[in-house]
Structure formats: structure tokens, C-alpha cells
């Protein structure tokens, strides 16, 4: 004979919400800390977890032991309101922080045409690093005299003259990729994924942007399909 189960108690509902948020939504907790508590991105992503929760708000703890109060405004009238409220709070936080709902969690290696600019920049850096070996009388010097227009003197002038231009352009591209793309799509600064994309654009340039944009577009298309 079937028996009716008692509805979950207030404490059980609270525990379920806290467990779910801590195990499935640490990213959202970091958004709360950044927007509602004013933490930096680095501090907010230091293993945030809800320490306690009531109808008035959440107490979120980070790895270093610091705790921050994030209020519900207005307070919840019951635990049934918790799910839509925390979702709405995340939307508000992301919009204020300029963070997309499409998260980039992977890196993609160069493909096809991407290898051409990457190879060109790598070759240039090799040339610059090899300048000490371009000396009169060396095998490299004599080879450049034969194969390089203008000879070794012109080679030396070109490689030296454009170094800071090349270095500066690619450094700025790292900065802009981080600011406009990686931070917007939830890539923690200086994480392994961040370093891969930053390293790519430093030696590859504009094709990195195109490859990253194609990944984001594919993720957005997948998300839209799930809605229908």
C-alpha cells in the first residue's frame, strides 16, 4: 500500500538549494560576489561557496575564508522563490559586468589558413633571436648575401627596426582579446585556457579572433536549438 511522503521541510529545501548552487553554479556565485559585493574577478573566482542562506540573503565564503553577504532584495517570501530569484540575480550581475551567457571553456588549435600568419610571426621571432649569428664572414651572412634582397645589411636593419612594432601590436591584441572576448565569455584570467588563447594571438594575430568567434557562434546556435 502506497504511503504519502511528507513534503520537504524548510531545512531540507534550504540544504538542497545550497548543495545545488555549490556543486553546479560556482560561476554564478562568483558573479554575485563581483556585482553585489564588489569583489575583483580574481577574488570572486577563488572557490566561492554558499556557507549559509536564509530568506533574506546568502552568505558566500571564498577560499581564503572571507565571507560576504549577498542580500535578496526584496527578501524571499518562501523557498519556492529561490530558483527564479537567483537566476534573475545572475542575469542582472552578468549584464552589469558585461559577461555573456555563452561560456568559453576550451581552446582550439590553429587550422587551415591559420598556420600561415602563425608561421610567419614565429619565423620573424626566430630571425630576431638569431641576429647574433648574422655576422660578417659567417655562413648565415654569406647565405643572406646570395638569397636576401639587399643582402645581410638590409636583413639586419629590417629585423631590428620592426621588432617593437611587431611586439607592440601583438601585445595590444592580447590585451584586447582578454578585455573584449575572454573576460566577456567567462575565461578566468591567467587560467590554462586563457594562456593558450593569449599565446595564440601573440604569435598568430587576427585569425585567432576569427577562430574564437566561430566557436562562440557555434555554442550560441546550440543553445538556441535547445530552446526549441
Calculate the terminal CA-CA distance, rounded to whole Å: 41 Å
Specify the number of helices: 10
Give the DSSP E fraction (strand runs of 2 or more residues): 5-15%
> How would you characterize the largest beta sheet?
3 strands, antiparallel
> In what order do the strands lie side by side in the largest sheet?
1-2-3
Number of domains: 2
Total strand segments: 3
Radius of gyration, taken over Cα atoms and rounded to an integer in Å: 26 Å
Helix-strand topology string: HHHEEEHHHHHHH
Parts with pLDDT < 50 across at least 5 consecutive residues:
none
The helix/strand class is: mainly alpha
Look at the structure and give the mean pLDDT. Answer: 93
Proportion of residues in helical segments: 55-70%
Describe the structure.
It is a single chain. The chain has 228 residues and is mainly alpha-helical. It has two domains: 10-97, PNP-oxidase-like (Split barrel-like), CATH 3.20.180; 112-227, no CATH class. Helix content is 60%, strand content 7%. It has ten helices and three strands. It has a three-stranded antiparallel beta sheet. A hairpin with a 2-residue loop joins strand 1 (49-54) and strand 2 (57-61). Helix 1 packs across helix 2 (26-36). The longest helix is centred in the C-terminal third of the chain and has 22 residues, at 206-227. The chain is elongated. The protein starts with 9 loop residues before the first helix and ends with a helix. The mean pLDDT is 93.
Amino acid at each position: 500500500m502506497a504511503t504519502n511522503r511528507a513534503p520537504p521541510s524548510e531545512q531540507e529545501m534550504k540544504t538542497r538549494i545550497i548543495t545545488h548552487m555549490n556543486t553546479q553554479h560556482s560561476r554564478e556565485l562568483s558573479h554575485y560576489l563581483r556585482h553585489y559585493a564588489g569583489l575583483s574577478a580574481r577574488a570572486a573566482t577563488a572557490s566561492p561557496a554558499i556557507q549559509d542562506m536564509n530568506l533574506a540573503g546568502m552568505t558566500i565564503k571564498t577560499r581564503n575564508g572571507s565571507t560576504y553577504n549577498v542580500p535578496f532584495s526584496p527578501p524571499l517570501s518562501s523557498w519556492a522563490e529561490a530558483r527564479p530569484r537567483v537566476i534573475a540575480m545572475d542575469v542582472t550581475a552578468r549584464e552589469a559586468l558585461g559577461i555573456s551567457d555563452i561560456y568559453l571553456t576550451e581552446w582550439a588549435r590553429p587550422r587551415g589558413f591559420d598556420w600561415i600568419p602563425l608561421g610567419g610571426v614565429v619565423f620573424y621571432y626566430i630571425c630576431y633571436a638569431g641576429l647574433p649569428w648574422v655576422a660578417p664572414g659567417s655562413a648565415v651572412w654569406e647565405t643572406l648575401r646570395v638569397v636576401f634582397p639587399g643582402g645581410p645589411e638590409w636583413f639586419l636593419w629590417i629585423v631590428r627596426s620592426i621588432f617593437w612594432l611587431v611586439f607592440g601590436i601583438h601585445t595590444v591584441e592580447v590585451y584586447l582579446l582578454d578585455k573584449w572576448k575572454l573576460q566577456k565569455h567567462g575565461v578566468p584570467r591567467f587560467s590554462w585556457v586563457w594562456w593558450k588563447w593569449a599565446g595564440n594571438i601573440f604569435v598568430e594575430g587576427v585569425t585567432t579572433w576569427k577562430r574564437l568567434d566561430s566557436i562562440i557562434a557555434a555554442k550560441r546556435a546550440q543553445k538556441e536549438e535547445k530552446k526549441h
